[in-house]
Design goal:
This protein is mostly helical and 206 residues long. It is built from 9 helices and no strands.
Length: 206
């Protein structure tokens, strides 16, 4: 019994190490080969682990790609989960601006991988479904923020659901503009979009 208990942590640690090895290797393969040419066989070969071992940890290359992208989005999700509670127009604008800028900086920082992900979006229903879930998470957060701002008299009276959807679709569009290097001045982009959103949605200070 004691031996079994002692072995559990070791097996768990070994499993964590293997999972990280697979993800790190997969990232390199995706960047070198692109989405279409990446296979589980190539990942397992370069990671020097068994083909079956990869599948014992992940469902396939789409599942692996999702986990890699999750690690990129983790910091942004943490920001989204912070309670939106500005006391005035200036604070609300600053929060929106910082969220936009962080999002665009992440896209810029991880451009090679985001290009792989963009390729995957055109080929995989699973990846499209995953991205839709990410966008829905963002939209729900935006909806809650708009509702709070309306309750506090900071935002105008409009349909918060449609407003949130329009806002996130705008951000998504410019994420890919950043990834494809069509927009390079991220501070200007974030400021411009924040001003546009606030002029349309929010009540300016008197």
């Amino acid at each position: 019994m004691t031996k079994a208990l002692n072995k559990r942590p070791r097996r768990y640690l070994r499993s964590r190490i293997t999972r990280k090895l697979i993800l790190d290797t997969a990232l390199n393969v995706f960047l070198q080969e692109g989405y279409a040419k990446t296979t589980v066989a190539k990942i397992s070969e370069q990671a020097n682990v068994g083909y079956g071992t990869v599948y014992s940890h992940y469902k396939g290359k789409d599942d692996i790609l999702k986990k890699v992208v999750d690690s990129i989005l983790e910091d942004f999700f943490i920001l989204l989960d912070v309670e939106f509670a500005p006391q005035n127009y200036r604070e609300a604008r600053e929060i929106f601006h910082n969220l936009m800028l962080t999002c665009f900086r992440l896209a810029d920082q991880h451009r090679p991988l985001m290009k792989v992900f963009q390729e995957a979006l055109g080929q995989s229903e699973s990846i499209c479904s995953y991205w839709q879930g990410v966008m829905e998470h963002y939209t729900t957060n935006a909806f809650n923020s708009i509702c709070y701002a309306q309750e506090k008299g900071l935002a105008k009276n409009f349909d918060p659901r449609m407003g949130a959807k329009a806002y996130i679709l705008l951000i998504e569009r410019f994420i890919w503009e950043v990834v494809n290097e069509n927009e390079k001045d991220l501070e200007y982009l974030s400021t411009f979009l924040t001003d546009m959103v606030f002029q349309g949605f929010f009540n300016p200070p008197v």
